[in-house]
Amino acid sequence: MNAVPASAEALPRKASLRARVVRHVLLPLALTWLLGTALTVGVAYYFAQKAFDRALLDDAYALASRVKLHAGDLALELSTREMSAVLFDQSENVFFAVQRPDGSVMAGHPGLHAPKPEAPARTRFSEISYQGKDLRSVVLLRSEPEPFMVVVAQTMGSRDALLHNVLLYSVAPQVLLLLLLAGWLRRIIGQELRPLAELQRSVEQRDALDLTPVPVSASSSDIEHLGTAINALLARVSHSMQTQREFSGNVAHELRTPLAGIRALAEYGLAQQDPALWREQLQRIGASEARASRLVEQLLALALAEEADAGVQNAPVALDEVVHETVLRYIPRADAAGVDLGVQGLEQRLWVAGNVALIEGVLGNLIDNALRYGHAPQGQDSSVTVVLAQQAGVVTLSVIDNGPGLSPEERRHLMQRGVRGVQAERLGQGAGLGLAIVAKFAAVMHAGFELGDAPSGQGLRATVSFPAASAA
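^ that's the sequence the OP posted. Answer follows.
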C-alpha cells in the first residue's frame, strides 16, 4: 500500500461531514427556538404586566371610592384596619397618596409623586423611584365630588421573579431538548455515513495496482452512485492500463524482428568493401525501416482505437467525400504496383454516423491490404474497387480485389490481432494488425465489419456497414 504523500499530511484538518451536517441542522434550529422563546417570554411578560397593573388600578379605584366631601373639604374615610385590607399584598410593599389639585396630600405617603395622565386620559402607569426602591405606579384622576388624584405604587419583586421563572422554565427544557436532538442526530447521521467511511477505508487500504471493483454497502442512493462512479473510474483505468500493456507487448514483440534485420544488414554491409553491396544493403535497410515505421503506425493506431472506446463522439460525416480524398492518396501507389484502383457510388451524397479520422484509418488499411495481397493470378490484371452503397438505413463501404481471396477459416483468424495470412508470410510483409485495426475502428463507431467473397467469385470483399445519418 502506498504511503500518504507529505503534501496530503500537511493539509489543514477539516471538520467531518457528520459534524458539518449536525452543525448546519442545529444552528438554524437553535436560532429558531431562541427567537420563539424570546417571543413567548415577551408575550407572557406583557400579559403578566397587564395583570399586575390591573390589580394596581383596582387598588387605586378602591381608595378613590372612599374619598368623601366633609365640611367643604375632601377626606379619605378609611380606618387603619380597612387601609391594611385594601392595600394588602403578601410579597410586595405598597405605597399610596391621595392628593388635592394643589399637590397637598390629604392621606398616604408624603413625597410619593408620579407623572400625571395627559388629557383626555384619566390614568397613567409608570415606573418611579421612592425611598430608594424601584416601584410600579398608577395615577388616577377623579373629578367627583371635587377634583383629586390617587397615586398607588408597589415594589416589583414578584414581577421580576415571574419573569425569571418564565425564562427558566421556557429556556431550560428547550436547551435540554436541543442537546438530546444533537446527540440523536449525530448518532443517526453517523450510522447513515458509515458506508461512506467503509468506502474510504477500502480505497485507502487498496494497492495502487489493484483495480478490481470496490465493494459498496450503500445506505442511500448518493453513496451508491458514488461507489458506482468510483468503480466505473477503476474500470476505465484498468482498461487503459491493459491497453498500455498490450501496446508495450506488441511493440516489443513486433519490432524485434525488423530491428534485428536492420542490424544484421548493417553489419553485413560494413563487413564488405564493394560499394555496390553497400548500396544493396542500404536499400534493404530502407525497406526494413519502412516496414518498421508502418508497424509502429499500426500499433499506435490500434492503441488509439483502444483508448477511443469512450472518448470518440460520432457525428454526421459525408462518406463519399472521405472516400474520394482517401482513394486519391493511394492512386500513385496503385499505379506503381500495376493495380487498377477505382471507386463506385460517388455520384450521390452519403451521410453516416462516424468519425472522419477513424473512417480514413479503416479505408486506408483495407486499401493497403488489397494492394499488398490482392494481386490477381499471373496473366490477369489486378484491380481494387471501392464501392459505396445505401440500403434500408445502412451505408456500406466495400473494398473488393480480384486476388487469391481467403477461406472462411482464414477470415476468422485474420480478424484476430497479430495473425498474418499466407500471402503476408510469403511476402514477408505485415504484422497482422491491419484487419484488427479495421475491426476495432468499426466497433468504436458502432459499425459492422465482415469479410466475404468478391461478387465475381474471385478475390476478397471487405465490407464496413455504417448507420446512415441526416445531413450535418
